[in-house]
Amino acid sequence: MTSINGLLRVDLTKRTHPALSDRPVFSSDQSGWRGVFFNHYQHPAHESPEHQWMQHIIGITGSGHPVQSEHRLDGRVQTCYCQPGEVLLLPAQLRYSSNWQQAGEFSLVGFSPKFFEQIVNESVQVKHIELIPQLGLIDPFVQQVGLALKADVEAEYPAGRMFGESLATGLILHLLKHYSVWRPQLPFNRTGRLPESQLRKVLDYIHAHLAQDIPLSEMAGVLHLSQYHFCRLFKQSTGVTPHQYLTQCRIDRAKQLLLKTELTITEIAFEVGITNHSSFTRLFRQYVGLTPKAFRVSS
Prior knowledge:
Blueprint: E1 2-4, E2 7-10, E3 26-27, E4 36-43, E5 46-47, E6 51-53, E7 56-61, E8 67-73, E9 76-82, E10 87-90, E11 96-100, E12 104-111, H1 113-123, E13 134-137, H2 140-154, H3 161-178, H4 196-208, H5 216-222, H6 227-238, H7 242-260, H8 265-271, H9 277-288, H10 292-298
Parallel strand pairs: 2-6
Antiparallel strand pairs: 1-2, 3-4, 4-12, 5-11, 7-10, 7-12, 8-9, 8-11, 10-13
């Protein structure tokens, strides 16, 4: 927490009082995500003084009853009766205060301005992008991404950090298209594919590093591409996202190890880049329909 000219600056990754009075129920602190952060709260009624977030913030109201609240954005007062799933968008450095008159559940997704600008600059050619603040917004895409991030944090990142980073990239591009001042048209090439040699190079890299938590930026870096263009070209070349391909490779490799070795299930999980036994079991059952133990016995 810092202060400039008497105005509090709040960092979502650190102590957020007095912008928020309670700590999150759970957060993405251990995710390894780069530039994106997630906190989930069960929060009492609370009135915050005027402050600025250091990140771009998306707030998503959780399940339960509607919550009455009052918001001051750059001096403009708005009253909102927030329904479950409604979205709040606060650009970094916006002067903001709020009065939540009832307890409620909500999630906060934050992007560091540097990460946001990196994704934007990899995707479109513009000199300046300004996000438009939103209150009481109904956006199913933002809501579903928020739920997916929440589920990934609760499950302790079963597929590694790439899943969260991929979701964050897609969410930034969505904000760019729909809630920025310029609303630029994103480039799209329906026929663009990776050349066979480049596709083979990145697939070989994935198979050689299954035991590691490969970040999306590192995978894109193998081909010297931006994350946005890499994801787009990879999916058009393979029919699946990099995250989906990586996860399927891990499951296939785990099946081989279960059948052909006497490694324990925990050791196999580490061999395929999943460091949590329960996360590995849950992910394996999702893809195969059986737990690792049941698969080994049945085969």
